[in-house]
Amino acid sequence: MPQMSRQDPLIENHTVDYVPLAERHGKARDLFTLWFSTNIAPLPIVTGAMVAQVFHLNLFWGLLAIALGHLLGGVVIALASAQGPRMGIPQMVQSRGQFGRYGALLIVFFAALIYIGFFISNIVLAGKSIVGLAPSMPVPASILIGALSATAIGVIGYRFIHALNRIGTWVMGAALLAGFLYIFGHELPEDFFSRGGFNLSGWLATLSLGIIWQISFSPYTSDYSRYLPADIGIARPFLATYLGATLGTILSFAFGLVAALATPQGTEAMLAVKQATGWLGPILMVLFLLNIISHNALNLYGAVLSIITSIQTFASQWTPSVKVRVVLSSGVLAGCCVVALGASADFISQFIGLVLALLLVLVPWASINLIDFYLIQRGDYDIASIFRADGGIYGRFNAHAIIAYGIGILVQLPFANTSLYVGPYANLVDGADLSWLFGLLVTCPLYYCLATRVRKERAALGAPLLAE
Q1: What pLDDT score does 7 carry?
Q2: Which one of 186, 267, 435, 451 is at 20 to 30 Å from 419 when CA atoms are compared?
Q3: Residue 454 neighbours by CB distance under 10 Å
Q4: Higher pLDDT, residue 437 or 295
Q5: What confidence category does residue 457 fall into, taking pLDDT thresholds of 50, 70 and 90?
């Protein structure tokens, strides 16, 4: 099994190109630490507090919905992650194997938009966190500090991101455990176990939120597994990603729920964390700030890869250098900082609403991606065709995937319940957005039926498993 040598460069030298077998390194457990540490952060904790504050569930029903939602949704992110070692290319580049060279551009655009939006939201959040810890620090300077720190990590790339999250797993995991012990080690409010109750709409809303949360990571999970040895198989990266992503988010959501119930009703989520954890609160805030910066590097890294993928679609012979990645990262940083410095007070909440709306386009993509990889192609893709100017055996446009994708979006619209669009049947279950369910139920069988019509034709071409 190839390992990284001491002579390997610190800064990653691959962008969207295929990672040769001789350069593969790492272990499946690296995926556990990456996704576990990434999900112990303020945003999932704040979202977990909503279970009590917005959906009015009690501790038992809230924890059940949180756990079940993430355990179900985690299957999607884990299946997507397990593709990386087999393919050796980023997730968005791989989409050319399903949608065609130009057909994949639309989902690449949406992915880049989500990455950039999350990057802006997180540097705003990091800036506010710095001001909260050091009130004398000007807000613009705080935002720039958070942005530059995340950019430095993103530019260095794959190895450094994994290394930080290996450390973060122990630090953030221990901090969250200490927070739980502190809360349950002190006197709890009389209504801690009885506040809230069971209501179907709130329970389904929490369940859906967990599923959607996991699906939202799927467009870039294989970006962080593509360097693993090709012979590592499917089971090990699947299990490592699944356990890391689900345990990290379940613990964070649960911590937010517990903190909300341990403080007076109506207390703002992060303030509830500080109040509920006493002297430990300021320490947690510092660690959360560091985790925001580390996690935001993933957003910048993904955004740059998506931009490079888009450019390379029209310049097939172009293989960007490290300098190009640095320049693009700097450009994204500058643009995001301009937006962040002028962001309104409710920018983060507005953007989260946009992301939830964009999930309408991610659900059918994830359905097509997984059906194609596991049931149609069974991991057997022609990497050379994916990088050819004419799309090779996958062509410029794959009509079967595009039709299934379009229908997958359309069937969700009547049931969508987002801040940007509310469908006529959005209140099928009051307060719960179930559009993703209809997207999955329609797109998966539809694409399978359409794609199997050309399966024999592609198999006859004898496409190799990997291009050396």
Answers
A1: 46
A2: 267
A3: 13
A4: 437
A5: low
CB within 8 Å of 58: residues ≥ 6 apart: 52, 193, 194, 195, 196, 197, 198
In whole angstroms, give the CA distance from residue 231 to residue 5.
19
Contact 311, 144 (CB under 8 A): no
Dmax (CA) for the chain in angstroms is 69
Residue holding tokens 């450094």?
A: 160
CA–CA separation, 4 and 460 (whole Å): 38
Rounded to the nearest 10 degrees, the angle between the axes of helix 105-133 and helix 139-156 is 130
The total number of residues written for the chain in this structure: 468
Q: Which phi and psi (to 5°) does residue 417 adopt?
A: -140, 75
In whole numbers, what is the pLDDT of the chain averaged over residues? 83
- The three-state DSSP-derived secondary structure of 105-158 is HHHHHHHHHHHHHHHHHHHHHHHHHHHHHCCCCCHHHHHHHHHHHHHHHHHHCH
What is the per-residue pLDDT for 18? 85
Cα separation, 284 vs 292, in Å, equals: 12
Q: How confident is the model at residue 326 (pLDDT cuts 50, 70, 90)?
A: confident
Residue with tokens 């300098």, as numbered in its chain: 323
